[in-house]
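In this section we walk through a basic example: taking a raw amino acid sequence and producing a predicted 3D structure, encoded as discrete structure tokens. The instruction is simple. Fold the sequence below.
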Amino acid sequence: MSTFWKTKIPQIMVLFFLLTLDFALSSAATNNSANDSNEKRWAVFTGDGHAGDCQCQGDDLRCVQRLGQWDPWGEYRCSYSHERRHGLADKHAPAHLMGDHVHDQGEWMVEYKYMSMAMAGNRSGTENLSTAAAFGFSGTNMLVAPTNMTMEMHMVHVMYGLRDNITAYLMPTWKSLTMDHMRNSTFMPNPPLAGTPFRTHNSGFGDLVFGALIRLYEGCDEELIFNLGMSVPTGDIDRRTTIPTGGMMNQEFPYPMRLGAGTFNARPGLTYKVYQDHGSFGLQYQTDLPVGTNSEKYSVSTEHRLNAWYSWLPWDNLSFSYRVESLWKSDYNGADPDLPPFIISTNRPDMRGGEWVNFGYGAALLVGQGHLLNAEFVHPVYQSVNGIQLANDWSLCVSWSKAF
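The resulting token sequence is shown next.
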């Protein structure tokens, strides 16, 4: 890939987000200003005292006759109240995202979310590298090179509506990390193991995430939500293993195999959503910002994520989503003195950052009495990493949630 495209693709993605926002705002304005009796019209009313409730006006009886039936282009949802429209299958963002909705005062929501991510092969910048080429690359991987990694996360997400526009949330996580490696042909710590593969594993509680979602604005078919989030360092960063040297040495796990950041992290974000008869649009900016350094004298990457998605609603209880994500991550700040950087690239704090563009494809299904099943598959279409790192391959997220 040319230098031009390496530098311009992230800028093009930002332009895409801005154009999507402009289109969403224009669509909302068009829906709100329609005045023909044969068109769908929404109007704010306060008949039951609930600010922001909306309903269709007009005499098109098809709206009443077709409620809840197959309606791929939203021709018959014009009579839905504000509350009912926001309770359809596209009420939540695609499965990988959070912080996109609030609950009424006194309402609870419980969600179980499972995520699995795979990384395969080494990469430098935008170029793939063989395992042989990874050995000794840029002064690292002298003894061992990583080849593959999987990460599994189990999350329990609890939300409670403090007020109609303020929702508190709490999310403990359990992580399971597995990494495959290849020892170099010259392996001084234990020569008989030279040129052989091995696998390490680490699992336990990750960092605890909590915060509040504050709805800053609610219109008839749009809303703006601020995420006042943070995480506390409940994930262990000091565990050790003897597997790499075949029992000869007890050493700390490298950076990607640790269960937490070791720092308090600020996680502010902002989400804008537009609901339409045929589906919904969403834009989200989310950050993860470490505060200070941890007990091992480093801080993890600063992350910035931009997401844009569209959820198509062919049926009230079924939606399909397409999402584009741009992700920027910095290198680590500082370094753990117990991780020699020449041994393996995952010990290098200056090889943790990069830029990624991901595509996501999802579906959500409402079943029974308000049970929401949500799933999404994500893969990278562009990734440029600092130094040498394992390349992202794919990610899958599935969830179940119920509000009561």
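Looking at the output, two observations stand out. The longest helix spans residues 3-33. The first strand starts at residue 42 and ends at 44. In the next section we compare this with other chains.
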